[in-house]
Amino acid sequence: MTEVTTGSARADKLRNRLTDELVAEGTITSEDVEAAFRTVPRHLFAPEVTLERAYAQDIVVIKKDERGTTISSVSAPSIQAMMLEQARLGPGMRVLEIGSGGFNAALMAELVGPDGEVTTVDIDPDVVDRARRCLNDAGYSRVNVVRGDAEGGVPQYAPYDRIVVTFGAWDLPPAWVEQLAQGGSLTVPLRMRSLTRSVTFTRTGDHLVSQSAQVCGFVAARGIGARDERLLLLRGKEIGLRFDEQFPDNPELLDGALDTPRVESWTGVRIERMVPFDTLQLWLATALDGYCRIAVDPGLDTGLVSPITRRSTDAVVDGGSFAYLAARRLDETMAEFGVHAFGPQAAALAETMADQVRVWDRRHRRGPGPRIAVYPGHLPCTALPDGRVIDKRHVRIVLSWPTTESSAGD
User: Fold this and answer.
1) CATH class of domain segment(s) 3-225
2) Would you call 75 a catalytic residue per the annotation?
3) Could you tell me if 107 and 34 are in contact, meaning their C-beta atoms sit under 8 angstroms apart?
4) Above 50 in pLDDT, residue 23?
5) Phi, psi for 80 (deg, rounded to 5)
6) Between the N and C ends of the chain, which has fewer C-beta atoms within 10 Å?
7) What is the DSSP string of 355-374?
8) Active-site residue (options: 72, 75, 100, 312)
């Protein structure tokens, strides 16, 4: 066998192994997506890395900025598979991918077939050139590769049956909705109160309604649609509170919070280790004013605070006090949720947050999660349904939760 033949056989084996893993873990659930993953040569879209790395279950970084922040990447296969399953692409569809890398567009081309059309757009000229080159090398030259700020979509190939956004979006520009065909859907990693969910929306009258929402992480938007979170640092740079909206009016009130004794409130709500609790995050973000995320710098960590995850955990600020979600191990398989709080009103704030953990456990833990609806930004609150309203530049997002039988009498 020649070196080329050996390499091709190795790539086929690794590609099938990766696909088998995605099917076994339940990320790939449809035959069409499975067939696309078994067909598209992922290694041709990551020529900088080894075959083994190209077919690994992690992200391949394409480009970082001068600060070392990742600004473009080939997403992890599990994320790509998840979003394609959410989007439900089919033969003959016209699809727009916002945020290019090449590999995902090739998967889409397989799913829509020769009678469909895929357009991919990116703001970065290097990423566009790379995607075009990789798509051509892999045999997908029919994909339209466009350079531009996707805030305005890509009108020349509209309307689209599906729009799939592959970066973390803070807002939903009007063009994305306007360029959807009748009955089309938009799948987007949408940031809401510092939480990102991959949401598939369909259009209902003048607004969008979620059909599914999955936990995900993506490189943040660049260009006109970029929006950074605000960071409030405590104890030098050891502890950071990240706010998407509702940054404290008087952040200096927190200056002495960590000099007060830590208050703990335990909820009685148990969680098995390694079991996800993403709906709890969304519930706390819905229920609590002053919601934010707390993170601890691992190089400066003194152990003063101990959130569930030091990288990012639910928190809330009220005046000069703040609280965050904690946990304590009960045995080898079970832990209990609790709340730690600091500041002059620590006890009251800890109990407020703990109460909301109990409400989630009682009403929403086994439910479907919130309905996420997107309305035009000009609508007044009186025209919106009940729920947590999150204002963006162009739209108003409403998180509302179903009433379940277990909530009766609460």
Assistant:
1) alpha beta
2) yes
3) no
4) yes
5) -60, -45
6) N
7) HHHHHIIIIITTS---EEEE
8) 75
> At residue 340, does pLDDT exceed 70?
yes
Please identify which residue in the block is written with the tokens 């098995």: 272
| Strand-pair partners of 325 | 339
Sorted by where each begins, the domain ranges of the chain are 3-225, 230-364
Cβ–Cβ < 8 Å for 92, 113: yes
Looking at residue 61, its pLDDT comes to 54
Helix (H) or strand (E) holding 269: strand 263-272
Q: Model pTM?
A: 0.89
**With helix as H, strand as E and coil as C, how does 192-222 read?**
ECCEEEEEEEEEECCEEEEEEEEECCCCECC
DSSP-assigned letter for residue 169: B
Q: In the chain, what is the greatest distance between 2 CA atoms, to the nearest angstrom?
A: 74
Of the listed ranges 1-10, 222-231, 316-325, the least confidently predicted one is 1-10
pLDDT tens for each residue of 194-223: 999 999 999 888 899 999 999 887 676 667
Q: Is 46 exposed, middle or buried (0-12, 13-18, 19+ CB in 10 A)?
A: buried
137/125 Cα distance (integer angstroms)? 18
**pLDDT by residue (tens digit) across 109-120?**
999 999 999 999
